[in-house]
């Protein structure tokens, strides 16, 4: 009787691995195909098809780097991404600390106001943001146009504005879980609000900050919409927008574009693997509590 009861369970045990393997192949299939063809000559794949074997070369990576001018555009991405991530995380910590540690009438409304930026589609704010950036004047050493339009500063600010709400929401929930006794002891020892923020809260928030740093770096680095709207000079575009330089006038070499895409993906992969331990720890925070 027991063998009959165990048999169906053991028979179904292989279903989950098979299902997960199929889903993984469906998800990774296009990526693996792009990776393989990025090392293949266009003439060979045009003659034999993309589902074939042969014609391997490294020329696509060399040509992609030269044609897309990746050196300049990687620098532009770094100028935009690094300050935007640092500023987003710092402002989010400030907002989350106020919302989590101080009880006042409008703290939930304040958090909702910051979250609203994440709920609105960016296309709905396209015209107001464009006109506002065109009207705000800045020194010419900041922008050649004399306004926030067509400047890296404008792109940094718009990314910070759209990402701060999500980070503040995540950090406020984490800060609420910190023991209140820590802050009571700090107050007894004479620690002010700034000292509580910088010496107690920020060190304890390293796991969620690391997870958010990985997410924000990926999102801001891959951001395409606002870069194409707010920037007008080709030498200021980030690296994701420079992939357009690989398109031909009459045809597109898909192997060349695949090689360019692989080059563009390298920085986010490096950041993920460097911060992988903190990223996983940040995602599983609170999973074993209660």
From TrEMBL:
SUPFAM superfamilies from the UniProt entry: MetI-like (SSF161098)
Signal peptide as annotated in the record: none
Domain (ABC transmembrane type-1): residue spans on this chain: 74-275
Keyword Isomerase listed: no
Gene3D superfamilies: MetI-like
GO cellular component, one term: plasma membrane
Transmembrane helix is among the record's keywords: yes
Membrane-spanning segments: 14-36, 78-99, 106-133, 153-171, 256-275
Pfam families: BPD_transp_1
CDD domains: TM_PBP2 (cd06261)
Coiled-coil ranges (or none): none
Annotated membrane topology: Multi-pass membrane protein
Family affiliation: Belongs to the binding-protein-dependent transport system permease family.
Protein name, as recorded: Carbohydrate ABC transporter membrane protein 2 (CUT1 family)
Organism classification: Bacteria, Bacillati, Actinomycetota, Actinomycetes, Micrococcales
């Amino acid at each position: 009787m027991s063998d009959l009861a165990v048999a169906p369970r053991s028979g179904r045990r292989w279903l989950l691995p098979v299902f997960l393997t199929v889903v993984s192949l469906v998800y990774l299939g296009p990526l693996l195909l792009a990776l393989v063809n990025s090392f293949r000559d266009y003439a060979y794949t045009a003659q034999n098809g993309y589902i074939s074997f042969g014609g391997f070369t490294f020329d696509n990576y060399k040509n992609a780097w030269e044609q897309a001018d990746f050196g300049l555009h990687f620098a532009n991405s770094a100028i935009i991404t690094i300050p935007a991530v640092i500023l987003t995380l710092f402002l989010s910590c400030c907002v989350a600390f106020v919302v989590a540690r101080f009880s006042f009438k409008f703290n939930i409304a304040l958090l909702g106001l910051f979250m609203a930026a994440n709920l609105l589609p960016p296309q709905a704010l396209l015209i107001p943001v464009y006109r506002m950036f065109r009207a705000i004047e800045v020194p010419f050493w900041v922008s050649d146009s004399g306004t926030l339009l067509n400047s890296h500063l404008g792109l940094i600010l718009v990314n910070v504005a759209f990402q701060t709400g999500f980070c503040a929401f995540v950090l406020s929930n984490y800060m609420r879980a910190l023991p209140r006794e820590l802050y009571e002891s700090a107050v007894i020892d004479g620690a002010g609000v700034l000292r509580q923020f910088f010496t107690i809260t920020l060190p304890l928030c390293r796991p969620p900050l690391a997870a958010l740093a990985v997410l924000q770096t990926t999102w801001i680095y891959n951001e395409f919409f606002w870069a194409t709207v707010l920037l007008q000079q080709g030498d200021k575009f980030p690296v994701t927008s420079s992939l357009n330089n690989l398109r031909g006038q009459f045809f597109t070499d898909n192997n060349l574009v695949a090689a360019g895409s692989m080059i563009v993906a390298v920085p986010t992969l490096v950041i993920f693997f460097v911060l992988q331990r903190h990223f996983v720890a940040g995602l599983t925070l609170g999973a074993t509590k209660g």
